[in-house]
Design brief:
The complex is a heterodimer. By secondary structure, chain A is an alpha/beta fold. Chain A is built from 5 helices and 5 strands. Chain A has a single domain, classed as Response regulator (Rossmann fold, 3-Layer(aba) Sandwich). Chain A has a 5-stranded parallel sheet with strand order 2-1-3-4-5, sandwiched between helices. In chain A, helix 1 links the parallel strand 1 and strand 2. The radius of gyration of chain A is 14 Å and the shape is globular. By secondary structure, chain B is an alpha+beta fold. In chain B, a hairpin with a 5-residue loop joins strand 4 and strand 5. Chain B is elongated, with a radius of gyration of 51 Å. Classes of the chains: A alpha/beta, B alpha+beta.
Chain lengths: 148, 499
């Protein structure tokens, strides 16, 4: 059984710490892989660059994707995930500060499974993390894994 | 009164009857001695009623005296000639009606003296045709003179045959200085030579067309000055040969207007481009605000919270209080940013107008407010069936703010009463939201809708002071108006219209 990892794509170190803390507070014990920009996230998923040799069948259970990212932005990461047969069914939740309509619409149009806005209030953030974990890691039936 | 031998007379009579004209023969005293069948037909008399009568029976009464004079004059110096040269002649029928005639007279000397033979022709039709030609000519002239364009008619040699008054006015020449001149007199000297070539080409293949397509054309006035013109040419084929009609229009004003429009358009385009750039900047600014400014706030709040949880025992009450204050301040700034973004988004938002059920929206918001504080005793009176043509999402923001304010400022008021309804205004329907809450001093009513202006103590009634500014922008965007009435501690009423 492959362990259920979470890929957190987040360039802001503070947000990374807070997100990990929110998971811990909610007893979400899955391994969290952090990619600090869009290119790194893609390298991880497609086993390229620094992640060459990684088993591409070993997909995360969930991708938490920020939109505003260095190198390759979040929407582009999402587009490439959906364009590749290996990752097209991967659950992707956009987790971002932006509530701009264009981001929401584009995010959903490109096939985001969900769109969560990071609240300023940490109590609200905790609650959001709790619900995310509950839904995507426990309730949701993951898509069937492809055998490579 | 036989004038010839019987056989010759028979011959003469046959000739007379076959003549196309009415023939009347009178004696020297003007009495009718002979008429033919055409005379009977033309004048409506039987022959016997005419023979022996003075010829004036065939002349309108008003002309009798004059006719007698003419007749005597002719007999005194008889010769073959048309009668009444240059005069309009009229005949009179038996029924008294008159008709235009032409008469040719010839004397015939006989044994019984000089007879006068008059051949009379009805010229009603010819007169009519003549009149029609004259009328047509008159109409043509009137049309020509009334035309807004200068109209110049020239022959194939380019000689001016006819111009109208507009031509004199436009070019500053009197008519007689133009007639017979080459048309090039109206063309600027620098292009006269070329014009002759163009003219010849047109004559070779004449057809109705605007002149100088895609070229700027100029006329030259008598004083040598030039002005832009538009010319349309048409050939007319007459018996005297082909004529060219040129309609010349002064387009100075139109060109000036066009240049003005072009200049304005360019400026507009420039302004628009600038505006678009500013808007884009504003958009990316607001995007940054929304994204980048919130992240540090989240860190401030999140790590304060972490500190409170993880290191609570290392802090005294004052320290914990400080951290809570830090959190509250960060959260408040988060709300401020959200409200500011809302305000800027409202300004930029595209409007999608449709019929919206305002009552249903208000009802939904009221239920949300109640759910937030179920213990509160509150009475919502919402008039049903109020609809308006507006943007549903924007108007939702308006109602959320106004009802939210009413809810906020009636806190502690028992029972709370909040009303949504409509009333007639001079310019149509106004909607209102009324509460029995804290109210406000009308002296400050003008500050209500300014961003960041607050009339109440923030501790008692928290808020960012952006809500009403947002509401006002939305209402203004709809072409409507918003105003408020209130009294301290007696409640407030907010009215708004939607165009």
């Amino acid at each position: 059984m492959i362990e259920k990892t979470i890929l957190l794509v987040e360039d802001n170190a503070d947000d990374e710490v807070l997100t990990l803390r929110a998971f811990a507070k909610n007893n979400i014990k899955n391994q969290v892989v952090v990619a600090r920009d869009g290119a790194e996230a893609l390298d991880y998923l497609f086993a390229e660059g620094a992640y060459e040799g990684r088993d591409t069948n070993d997909l995360p259970q969930l991708v938490l994707l920020d939109l505003k990212l260095p190198k390759v932005d979040g929407l582009e990461v999402l587009r490439r995930i959906r364009a590749d047969t290996r990752t097209e069914l991967l659950p992707v939740v956009i987790l971002t500060s932006s509530r701009e309509e264009q981001d929401l619409v584009q995010g959903y149009r490109l096939g985001a499974n969900s769109y969560v806005r990071k609240p300023v209030n940490f109590d609200d953030f905790l609650e959001a993390a709790r619900q995310l974990g509950l839904y995507w890691l426990l309730l949701n039936e993951a898509p069937p894994r492809r055998s490579g | 009164m036989p004038v010839t031998t019987p056989s010759r007379e028979a011959h003469f009579r046959a000739l007379l009857e076959a003549a196309p004209d009415a023939v009347v023969i009178t004696d020297g005293d003007g009495n009718i001695v002979l008429v033919n069948v055409q005379t009977e037909r033309l004048f409506g008399y039987a022959r016997r009623d005419l023979i022996g009568r003075p010829v004036e029976i065939l002349v309108p009464e008003r002309l009798h005296d004059r006719h007698v004079g003419h007749r005597l004059g002719f007999v005194a110096a008889p010769r073959v000639r048309p009668m009444g040269e240059g005069l309009e002649l009229s005949g009179r029928r038996a029924d008294g009606s008159e008709f235009p005639i032409a008469i040719s007279l010839s004397p015939a000397d006989t044994d019984e003296g000089t007879l006068v033979i008059a051949a009379i022709r009805d010229v009603t039709r010819a007169k009519q045709a003549e009149k029609e030609v004259r009328d047509r000519e008159t109409r043509f002239r009137a049309l020509l003179e009334a035309a807004p364009d200068a109209i110049v008619i020239a022959d194939t040699q380019g000689r001016i045959e006819l111009v109208n008054a507009q031509t004199e006015r436009l070019f500053g020449y009197s008519r007689d200085r133009l007639i017979g001149q080459p048309i090039e007199i109206l063309v600027p000297e620098r292009i006269r030579r070329g014009h002759v070539a163009y003219r010849d080409a047109f004559i070779a293949a004449p057809r109705v067309r605007p002149m100088g397509e895609n070229r700027e054309l100029f006329g030259q006035r008598a004083d040598g000055s030039e002005f832009p013109v538009e010319i349309s040419l048409s050939p007319v084929h007459t018996e005297q040969g082909t004529l060219i009609i040129a309609a010349v229009r002064d387009v100075t004003d139109r060109q000036r207007a066009r240049h003005e429009i072009e200049t304005l358009n360019e400026r507009l385009l420039r302004d628009n481009t600038e505006l678009a750039a500013v808007n884009k900047e504003l958009e990316s600014f607001s995007y940054s605000v929304s994204h980048d400014l919130r992240a540090p706030l989240r860190a401030i709040d999140g790590f304060s919270q972490a500190l409170l949880e993880d290191s609570a025992d290392q802090l005294d009450d004052t320290g914990r209080d400080y951290l809570n204050r830090v959190r509250r301040a960060a959260q408040r700034m988060g709300v401020l940013i959200d409200d500011l973004i809302m305000l800027s988004r409202v300004t930029r938002a595209d409007m999608h107008l449709r019929q919206v059920d305002l009552s249903a929206l208000a009802q939904g918001i009221a239920e949300d407010l109640r759910a937030r504080d179920p213990a509160r005793m509150a009475d919502f009176a919402i008039t049903g069936g109020l609809t308006a043509q507006c943007d549903a999402r924007l108007i939702q923001i308006v109602l959320e703010n106004l009802l939210g304010n009413a809810w906020k400022f009636t806190a502690g008021r028992t029972p709370t009463r909040i009303e949504f309804g409509s009333c007639r205004q001079d310019k149509g329907e106004a909607y209102f939201i009324r509460d029995n809450g804290a109210g406000f001093d009308m002296a400050h009513a003008d500050q209500l809708f300014r961003a960041f202006q607050r009339l109440h103590d923030a501790a008692r009634f928290p808020g960012t002071g952006i809500g009403l500014a947002t509401v006002q922008r939305i209402v203004t965007k709809h072409g409507g108006r918003i105003w408020a009435a209130g009294e301290v501690d007696k409640g407030a009423t907010f009215y708004f219209t939607l165009e």
